Each structure stands twice: as C-alpha cells, then as structure tokens.
C-alpha cells in the first residue's frame, strides 16, 4: 500500500487536561515511540487555539525537536490539523481576529516549509462553519490572499467543511487552485447524513487527507463499525481515484487512548490493505 497511515495527535496518550482532542503540552514527544511501535508512519499534529505559542509548531526550537524525534522513531509529521481556526476563524466578522489568524497561518506555512508538510487542514465546522453566504464570501477573500504563497510552496490547504457536495464544489471552484483541496472525514459525513458516493463523485479527485472516524447520524463519535459510516461503500468508491494522501486515525478515544486505538486499528486494517 503506497498510502501512509497516521494518527491524530494525542490519540495514543492519556487525554490532555481532559480534552477530547488537543495538543498534549509537555508530553507530546512520548507519542512518537508509541506510534512507531504500532507500525504507524505519521502523526497529524494539532495546532490548538489555547496555548498556541507553546506548540512546537510555533515555539522557538520546536521544529528542531520534532525533526529529531522523527529521525529517531521513523514517525514523521506530514500534515497539520489547524484547530486554531475553529476558535478564531479566518472568516470571522471581527477584523482583529481575522488579521491575527492570518498571521498564524503565515507562520504555520513557514514551519511547514521546514518540516516538508504536505497539508494543513483548515476546519470549517461547528463554530467555524461556512453556513452563510457572508461567511463563505469572507473565507474566499482571506484564502485568496494566501493562494499565491501556497502554490509557490506547493502545500495544500485541505478544507474540512460540513457543506453538502454541491456548495462544497462551488466553494472549491471559487478558490480555483490546485492547492485548495479536501479533507474527507468519514465519520463527520456519516453524522451529517451525506452519501459518500455522491461526495466522492463531486470531489473525490480533490481529496488529499482522510480522517478515519465513525459517528452515529446526528450524534457523536463511536467505536469504528458502531456508527453510520459505510466503510465498504467509501473504500470501494475511493478505488476509482488515485488517492495518494494519508489515512489519519481520528477514531473514538477514551481517557487512556492506546487499547481502544489498537482494537480500531485492527478493525480498519483490512479496508486499508484492500488498497494494496
């Protein structure tokens, strides 16, 4: 299988400050060895809004530390999930928030250059949803500003949205860049009641990062196979596209992390191996 398998940061460690998904300040380093032990290639790093300056992606000396640990363990960082922009959206109606967030994005791109990052995931869900025309217009305006830079650097801004296929394609067409791509989250799509065949038909060739998760319709995360995600349908359809990006395990977690991860990795492996 040419695709790499990774894990969303923090899933192999005890919860950070009881939060479901967060960059684990002070012990993030421990996860690389655990990921290597389970044969994973990657960790998708998280940039939180909280304590962003403490994150090695932005902190002085942090990049060197990531590089050193990657070399020692063989587990690299290829993608970043910029959860920062859920709290402080690039399309906020507050101009100060927008300018600060834009500067954070520029700094992330500097980091990405050194780490050879392929994708920065920009979440446009929940409080950063693009559900109004005004939000979409503001988002397009801000992202358009950065397009020349990402094209020159050849890095993808991989959009995770809660838009149905037609408006999502309209958004991608407005931005009109090969480096504005799609982050596909299997579980989130299931929770929203979307048809994965219809979604992939619309933008399957633009997906560059996949989050593996299961959710119940209209509800929260659940152990893989226990929710409404149709993995067979999704992976069968995915065969039609030459998807080269990573599969990132963002599956259900408990307080501890590792045991529940192990079970779910074993469950999803046959689907991933079917792509060989």
Question: What would you say this structure looks like, in words?
Answer:
This protein has a single domain (5-273), classed as Divalent-metal-dependent TIM barrel enzymes (TIM Barrel, Alpha-Beta Barrel), CATH 3.20.20. It is an alpha/beta fold. An eight-stranded parallel beta barrel has the order 1-2-3-4-5-6-7-8. Helix 4 runs parallel beside helix 5 (133-153). Helix 9 (231-238) links the parallel strand 7 and strand 8. The chain starts with a strand and ends with a helix. The model has no long low-confidence stretch (mean pLDDT 95). The protein contains ten helices and eight strands. The chain has helices spanning 30-37, 62-73, 84-87, 95-115, 133-153, 165-175, 186-191, 196-203, 231-238, 258-273, and strands at 5-8, 42-46, 79-81, 119-124, 156-161, 180-185, 207-212, 247-249.
The largest sheet, given as strand count, sense and whether it forms a barrel, is: 8 strands, parallel, barrel
Low-confidence stretches: none
Quickly count the helices: 10
* Total number of domains: 1
Q: Distance between the terminal alpha carbons, to the nearest Å?
A: 4 Å
Sequence of secondary-structure elements: EHEHEHHEHEHEHHEHEH
Which sequence of strands runs across the widest sheet? 1-2-3-4-5-6-7-8
User: Could you tell me the mean pLDDT?
Assistant: 95
Number of strands: 8
Task: Summarize the topology.
Elements: E1 5-8, H1 30-37, E2 42-46, H2 62-73, E3 79-81, H3 84-87, H4 95-115, E4 119-124, H5 133-153, E5 156-161, H6 165-175, E6 180-185, H7 186-191, H8 196-203, E7 207-212, H9 231-238, E8 247-249, H10 258-273
Parallel strand pairs: 1-2, 1-8, 2-3, 3-4, 4-5, 5-6, 6-7, 7-8
